[in-house]
Model the fold of this input.
Amino acid sequence: MMFADLTEFHQWLAERRAAHEYRVVPTPLKRLDGWAVDPGTGDLHHRSGRFFSVHGLDVTGSRREVGQWQQPIISQPEHGILGILVKEVGGVLYCLLQAKMEPGNVNTLQLSPTVQATRSNYTRVHRGRPVPYLELFTSLGRGRPLADALQSEQGSWFLAKRNRNMVVRIDEDVPVLDNFCWLSLDQIGRLLAMDDLVNMDTRTVLSHLLPRGEQVSGRPLHTVPEVLNWLTHHKTTDRTVRRPVPLAKTDGWRVSDDDVRHEYDRHFRIIGVDVRAEDREVRGWSQPMLAPCGEGIAAFVVRTVGGVPHVLVQARAEAGTPDTVEIAPTVQCNPGNLAHLPRTRHPRYLDAVLEAPPERVLFDVVHSEEGGRFYHARNRYRAVEVGDEFPLDVADGFRWVTRDQLALLNQFGGLLNVETRNLLTCLGFIK
Done:
């Protein structure tokens, strides 16, 4: 399935949405089928011992706006596969994507990678249908790999979670199943400018397929070894310590039969849902989900220096980041969680991002986060251009890098956090 224009695509997506029954019903945690609460700790886990669990985490030594806290966190110690098949048709590269229902999606269906599956899913712990096209990513020699990297996911909500981000090029024809379609990179770029359409898993894999940057005559402010030196310095000097604590005794959080929530209704809740989806590997299931309180923001500040566009990034530690510190956007926060703090303790450069005049905004789009674990989680992805009034001498922990340098570092995995990869995709593809 290919489309002559995006009008045809939107018609196809509407047809896919109407073709199946989807239902997501909020349900008290104590009534979730297949899930149990540990009587000693209050932790949530699946009866199979697989999929994921929810427990408490104690964080100390952080250099963030708040240096010490406790929180619930999702533990899923297995590597999933996020893979996109690509092929060239008439000199144009196309990606095979699927219209996939996830229980946390605000609009039910979004564009997912060819394969989006946890290890528990693709090893069929749930005894459901096999994952389509999986063998093209797990069998060596079926296609030509263009990218393959272990990448972290949301470090503020997941504990040490990584997924395998893959791009595989094929020359053979493959059958296109009902919920799948071929889209060109140009079409995907235009869809990325639309809210809540291209899902997070697709966006992170697309960061490995960035178009080549324009040729520029100048040089970056810092070489790639210098950027790696800066990042490694912050990794090795970070003093963040995290240790598990019982969910029932997580300070500042209230655990009930219905949900888990912050005492001041900030940050997020842990809720339960019952799900019905006719076209998934399993047609019905129950699960806990993390439901954020409010919309977050992830943003780049962009400045051209010596004819070379640079983006401002930071070395940032999260509660659950696998390797403590990764490269993060200029600004990454949920403004609603900061209302009780004085402005002096707000993230640096937040005002520059939020108060930029419209003519300086390169893109501004709201995207959903991973809908398999997060319920109605949305972030505003934004890039704003600044001029000479914005200093090159930036705060400790920040560094100017080019888009192409970020793309190079991204190929090796574990260096750029998921919000940075999402912004990198938007910066490279949105027209």
Q: What stands out?
A: The first strand starts at residue 22 and ends at 27. The mean pLDDT is 93. The CA atoms of residues 207 and 425 lie 5 Å apart. The longest helix spans residues 6-19.
